[in-house]
Write a structure and sequence with these properties.
about 80 residues; alpha+beta; about 20% helix
């Protein structure tokens, strides 16, 4: 089972949605990176969590439902082929 998961957060001031890479801990919690995948949002900014600890396939589905306010650079990461 992969320990790589994703967190989606919404900036309160403008509604932008950014994706954060995270790792599951042994305690089954998520530890997020400080910056979003695109680097344009900090985890500590005034925001709310849309979803947390979602594996790649579920994160793709949830982001597709969100629509236009989703950061294109963040979501494109979910569709890149692994090298």
């Amino acid at each position: 089972m992969s320990k790589h998961v994703y967190i989606l957060r919404e900036r309160k001031e403008n509604g932008e949605l950014h994706l954060f890479a995270a790792n599951k801990t042994d305690e089954n919690e998520c530890r997020s990176q400080q910056k979003s995948i695109c680097g344009q949002m900090d985890i500590e900014e005034n925001s709310r969590t849309i979803f947390a600890c979602q594996p790649e396939d579920r994160a793709r589905t949830q982001c597709a439902k969100v629509g236009r306010k989703m950061c294109v650079n963040c979501v494109s990461h979910l569709y890149m082929d692994s090298i």
